Amino acid sequence: MYRKTDNYIVFELDQNHIIDYQVELGKSISQIATNDKDVVFRQNATFAFKENDIYKPIGNIVKEGKLNQTMSSTSKWSAFIVPKNGKPYVGVLNPNDISNVKLGFQSTPQIVKNGQVFINSKEEATPSDVANSSTQRSAIGIKANGAIVLVTTLTSFTLNELAKLMINLGCVESLNLDGGGSTSSNYMNEKIVKNERPVSAAIVVRQKQDNGDGNVSTPLIIIDAGHGGIDSGAENKALGLKEKELTLQISLYQYARFQQLNVPVALTRNKDETLDSTPRTKRVKDSGAKYCISNHINAGGGKGVETIHSIYADGKLAKKLYDAIISCGQLGRRVFTRTLPDNPKRDYYYMHRDTGSVDTTIVEYGFIDNAEDVVQVQKNWQVYAESVVKAFCEYTGVKYTPPISTGENELQNALKVIQEQGAINTPDYWIKNAVKNGQVNGEYAALLIQNVAKVINQLQTEIITLKNNQGSNPPLTPKPEPKPDPTTPTEPKPIEQPKTWDQVLKLATDTSVYFQVGGKNGTGVLLKDGYILTAKHVIHPDVNMKVQTYDRTWYDITFISQHPDYDIALCKITDYKPTTPFVELSNRGIKTNQKLIGVGHGLNVKWRSKEGVVCNDSLPTEKWKFDCSLPFDSDDSGTATLDEYGQVTGIAVQRVSVGIKVGSVSQVTQDSAIINIKDQKVQSWLKENKIIK
């Protein structure tokens, strides 16, 4: 599993992966093991020293029970060890006892032990610049089930912060690896860092190959999203459509569906990435896949779907995919193949010509410059994409099950019954609003239930009244007049949807401000109309106060108010600009184990992002505060904590001892005390200052 956030990259190995350690002197991470087609991920490993202008790895290295390198200077360092039998672990790599070691290499220090933060730098004699700095870092961790987790950070982390990240990722043991300028990783031959240091050694993750019993763990199919990056492909400027975006949308959908169907699958690209013909075809060839589907949207004045196969293929798969898309209502144009004009023995398209033995089919779903075609593709792209998935499964003999239905027909039938009973006027409003992306919109559904309940209650009341007045056989009650659908202002407010954590982090970054008050520094958060919420001890009403926003603009600020009892205060930008970003205050409150994100300016590192979870929803003696595993350092006072909706739940004011439970293991660490925005006294103070109603 590969995942990239704004702050780190994580790759978790599964049963189809093999971990290795490879040394190639003078080479950078993305240059190591490039001739091996089974490599899916590379990452920097142990520390290195420079000798005769060449970096060389430091520490003991063991492979297959043999000592490849030994150094007495690292005798106290910990090691990552994969035994020939059993789960990986972090421990001591004894050069005299390596017969049972399949793979082992040293680094320093160990940072997680038994699911707890365990910075072992003193005992291991870790160099001070490694132990005490905040910099880009990398680490290797092990989960309780033995799964290996590799991490490279994209922003600065202390060892303590790195340890907490590894615990949050589920690791019970973890070892710090080299960092700073040596930090680098490489996924599917995608270069992450522009100028990599030639560290000469890398952790290499390989995809398992066919073991001879038919259980092939390499991809059966690789999906190619045509074009990307600076190459937009065909465009429809009037509609704002680009081929590269449509092909990626289709490819990501198919990738997810194949995963649901347990079909081994890979992608040439999973984002908007420039990918020329050579690296694109290399990814296809190196994947080990048997089949490739290259998704495209056509242009040039035609209409309908086309599929194109190699001159050396029989065309059966291309015809199968073509027929599948036509069966969904798209117009068919042709199934064909094409040769180079000057060489009839070579394919015209490089996706056929340069992908080796991979059976590649190019699918052109329609023409982006045809008015009817582009509407069909926009409207039905998911239907077409699913038809390709189904057809491929049928062609290869893979069991196919359709995607989970959203139940729209059932919804329409139910709403029709409700309409007949007078609870709603027409079903159209409710079909549009009650279900979003296949999920019931709770707020609308609740209103619908209330309407139905009112009708039922009215009918029951009328029946009881009639029974009392006319005996046990009352006449039928006339149908009540239909209730009008809600409209403004009675129309229900759409329920808020959670944001992605990347969106929350961006919002937290954009709205975090750096305080400069006399000789003190701190953090605050921008609210609507230029108001700033911070910790009371950060400000000083009698001195000149300034804040710096994320665009690096300095503003003078004016003191507005401070809470009489709690460590929280309000200021306001003197020269407020309406375009200044701001964040809303949460009206939901917090709950234990809820994830929160904050961006502060601690340890003189501006706009440093942090994340943690709510440990206790109130402190024993200070009920207006909650504690959180979000790290807290000097000058972080006033940092706002944002929830999954991108709204402020609290303001960090001090460091506290926090108890965290990871699985069945409890630990104590120094983290943050947060003033709860939903505390009654805080709410009253905010209302007095017209921040909330």
UniProtKB/TrEMBL annotation:
Gene3D superfamilies: 2.40.10.120, Zn-dependent exopeptidases
Compositionally biased residues, Pro residues: 475-492
Matching InterPro entries: MurNAc-LAA_cat (IPR002508), N-acetylmuramoyl_amidase_3 (IPR050695), NAGPA (IPR018711), Peptidase_S1_PA (IPR009003)
Phosphodiester glycosidase domain span: 44-205
Keyword entries, A-Z: Hydrolase, Protease, Serine protease
Ranges where the MurNAc-LAA domain occurs: 221-390
Chain residue ranges for the region called Disordered: 467-499
Keyword Transferase: no
Protein name: N-acetylmuramoyl-L-alanine amidase
Species of the source: Brevibacillus reuszeri
